[in-house]
Amino acid sequence: MRSKSIIFQTSSVACCNGVPTTTLSLSKDCYDPFDPNGNITITYDIQTWTTRGYVGRVTVQNYYQFRHVEKPGWRLGWTWTRGEVIWSMSGAFVTKQGNCSLFKFDPPHSCEKSPVILDLVSEASLENRSEGCCRSGVLSAWAVDPSKSFSSFEISVGSMDGNGNEQPPANITLMAPGPGYTCSPFLDAHPTVSSLIDGKRQVQAFRTWKSTCTYSIFVYNKTPLCCVSLSAFYNPSITPCPTCSCGCREANQTTVQCTRDKLQLSTMESANLLASVQCSDHMCPVRVHWHVKTNYIDHWKVKLTVSNYNHDRNYSNWNILVQHPGFSQSTEAFSFNSSQLPSVRYGDELALFWGIEYYNTELVQSTESNVGYVTTDILLEKDLESFTLSNGWALPRRVYFNGDNCQMPLPDTFPMLPNGSSKQSLSLFISIILFLNLLFW
């Protein structure tokens, strides 16, 4: 067999601040190398003119392959540049009406110079809905479910400029649900074309502007969310998550629950709250465990387990991204949905796993006595030209949970084959394993 040595690449996500990457000296750090084209695009269309302004449509589209927008959902903000007001909205709402004292008989929906907009819940009444709206601000990752990766709302804007020279809002901000996103200014784009009458008629927006929002862990500067532990059938020891992966445990070793910084949510007040997690040496809310389970003649099996040590929250519509060379072959997950993603920069393949609807899409929170978890067996076909159990080849290179990079153990702590320095002993050991599997069959 030809053995591949294990190589770990550090992936970084930085914020481009809306500037094209070709103009930045450090453009290679302005995106996630596993998802270089990922972003959230805000599209602002002027659809029709009215006697007091125009009617527009705003679409929030998630193009991230494996980073979704979870509860409590996105918050969109901007600043009007010409004193505009929002007469009415459908499919979303502004959190504050603002000072509308100038309008005595027909007050607008919002007179705020810098409105903050939220999506409506899925149970919103019919009169308040618009096409493609009302997902409670939750957007699926593009690779998981494109049909649920966007949300739209309609907006009637009062404009002082009636000659068609309207300008888009400025200072676009996006919370999805926490910070970390930086948005470019609205730029002119090709007018959006929509289909009517079962696709037989196409209509075009009068004007279209687009803003691109990118996520950066450096802008967010948050404590890591997850870590990875490893084990294998050929080694009795377990490689735990690195100590203090997501912070350090408090001094009192007798406590069951510990506190750690909470993910910043929809209000500034929530940033001061502390989340309660199961006390551990790693102090991570989420742990991903990869266990090399069995080795067959032309297949090998892995058990993947995701545990939720958070006592305060469930993780809905979670997903796991794993970088591993074995995913270049046929792969079957028994209890998760799965899909292979193209590897842009690295030779190893990427596999995305997520829950099955009505079965395990909810990673439930822990209690005093039980840890919430989801698990699956993964069967991978062997490529005899590259497959080996030595040098950590069977273990993942990189793991992401909900788009966040998980803390990996150091390679020198990985579970290794016994007598790994002896090629003869290694060949004998693998032959015995294969023989025992044959007897089992």
From TrEMBL:
Protein name, entry field: COBRA-like protein
All copies of domain COBRA C-terminal, residue ranges: 226-415
PROSITE patterns: PROKAR_LIPOPROTEIN (PS51257)
Family recorded in the similarity comment: Belongs to the COBRA family.
Keyword entries, A-Z: Glycoprotein, GPI-anchor, Lipoprotein, Membrane, Signal
Pfam short name (any one): COBRA
Compartment list: Cell membrane
Taxonomic lineage of the native organism: Eukaryota, Viridiplantae, Streptophyta, Embryophyta, Tracheophyta
Membrane topology designation: Lipid-anchor; GPI-anchor
PANTHER family: COBRA-LIKE PROTEIN (PTHR31673:SF41), PROTEIN COBRA (PTHR31673)
InterPro entries from the UniProt entry: COB_C, COBRA_pln
